[in-house]
Amino acid sequence: MTDKWMETAQVESCREIAPGIFDLVLRTENIAEAAKPGQFVSVYSGDSARLLPRPISVCGTDGKLLRLVFRTVGKGTAEFSRKRPGESLQVLGPLGSGYPLEAADGKQIVLTGGGIGIPPLLYAARRLRERKDAGDGPLEIRAVLGYRDGNAFLADEFAKYAKVSIASEDGSLGTKGNVINAMEAEGISPDVFFACGPAPMLRALKEKAAAEEKECWLSLEERMACGVGACLSCVCKTTAEDAHSKVNNTRVCREGPVFAAEDVII
Amino acid sequence: MDINMKVNIAGVELKNPVMTASGTFGSGMEYSELTDLNALGAVVTKGVAAVPWTGNPVPRTAETPSGMLNAIGLQNPGIDTFLERDLPFLRQFDTKIIVNVCGHSVKEYCEVCERLADSDADLLEINISCPNVQQGGIAFGQQPKEAEKITREVKRVARQPVIMKLSPNVTDITEIARACEAGGADALSLINTITGMKIDVGRRTFALANRTGGLSGPAIHPVAVRMVWQTAQAVSLPLIGMGGTASWEDAAELILAGATGVAVGTATFRDPQCGQKIAEGLEQYLRDQGIGDIRDLIGAVR
Known about the structure:
The complex is a heterodimer of chains A (266) and B (302). Chain A contains 6 helices and 17 strands. In chain A, strands 4-3-7-1-2-6-5 form a 7-stranded antiparallel β-sheet. Chain A has a 7-stranded mixed β-sheet with strand order 11-10-9-8-12-13-16, sandwiched between helices. In chain A, strands 15-14-17 form a 3-stranded antiparallel β-sheet, with no helix packed on it. Chain A is 20% helix and 35% strand. Chain A has helices at 31-34, 75-81, 119-134, 155-158, 179-186, 199-211, and strands at residues 5-18, 21-27, 40-44, 54-57, 60-62, 65-71, 88-95, 108-114, 140-147, 163-168, 175-176, 192-196, 215-219, 235-238, 249-251, 258-260, 264-265. Chain B has helices at residues 78-91, 106-115, 144-157, 173-183, 221-234, 248-257, 267-270, 274-289; strands at 7-9, 12-14, 18-20, 42-44, 61-64, 67-70, 96-101, 123-127, 162-165, 187-190, 194-197, 199-200, 205-206, 212-216, 239-241, 261-264. In chain B, helix 2 links the parallel strand 7 (96-101) and strand 8 (123-127). Chain B is globular. The chains are: A alpha/beta (266), B alpha/beta (302). At the A-B interface, loops of A face strand 5, strand 6 and helix 7 of B.
């Protein structure tokens, strides 16, 4: 397992980039430099009445700067969204497995993101593009991003690393519908998928990848408590016996959150 | 001033009274990356059964004000893997090992205790208080007769001292405590979680797939202090107090109420070094109070 740190991180900036979607940059001692695409961090509330950490995926790093893009869903994330430069947040990480970037070497890859599942894929896109530019990465990188409406947060940044296609539920941008609809409309059929998004999207993608015999890696979400693999809150059913408990129930926070689609039952 | 932090639980000497609470610390592997296990008096493992247990469906946890509900359902790899992998890992550290034992029947509890007989386990903690499994668990912890019977059966096969872990979900905890004492228990630990429920108003359904779960965290601490105090008046066994312990003050309260040991559970999720800090905080507290021996605090409030 990789090294992880509990740190008091300094807030560099925090801004709302779409309604309810916040872009938070933290200065960390070690976490940012160690974080890989697909990993996440545990962020702790300053209010001890909210005692569990909130798992938030890593959207990017720049030296010691750690970028988290998250949606406010409750009081904890609302508190984080109000942070201003000079304030601090307690953060543990990096946690979990990442995307296996080398799985896309010499292949066409599509990063498939839905809603708040999009941010971790931006970091993957950047690292994949660096590998491609160095000559040993993917042949082609595409991103298919699904949004509720025309607030296509982060899409412009994806364009620096990948060819971007967009789907929106209300049809205000790109293909009307979801990411699967967009792929069908544009005839997108890669060798490998990396995905993160709501469960119905992941299920549909898993089915599509299986039918087309494509490699597919999914980042899963589950209610967590400890975030490090001790409490067994965030398990996912697996097709094979899991190494930890031997009961086909693996830990999303530790063995995951990224899994090969065929290994998990979702 | 020399401070003695050592305590004795059923003949086993702990370097300090602070331990982990079962189910919140696995077998120590994950948290050993974030805290020094050598700083703890003991590590209490997650419940171990005779065979692997799958546990409950997800979601298994929900946050509540100053607490959380869990319904993990005792997912565990079973005694074979535990003996092969977990116990040798823990033995590397200078801390006592308390193995929490769970089962669906008296026979299953006894089977696990027998398998642990020649192992490195220092003490056994018998979980007769898990609110999240259908058979076993709490069923043995809510009837004095059942509690006495399982204590007696386990004591017959156990090679290590036996701690019975009590449930707060009873009318009178001292009744169960006395039953365990009559059955031959060497120590008692309390409290396990308090049964609760949370409803997700957005989804208009239960927050936990199991519907009910066990409430833990600072929210239940005063209940733990009360029950430790009551139990301390009722039995002469050493007690391990737990329930929302998140600071040295919480630990000191439990000790003053009558606990010889204190366990830190949910608070570890917020601060992996919580147990270590509590041990240090207790020592400083003794220094500040001018008390040279932690044992002088045990049950000092009557």
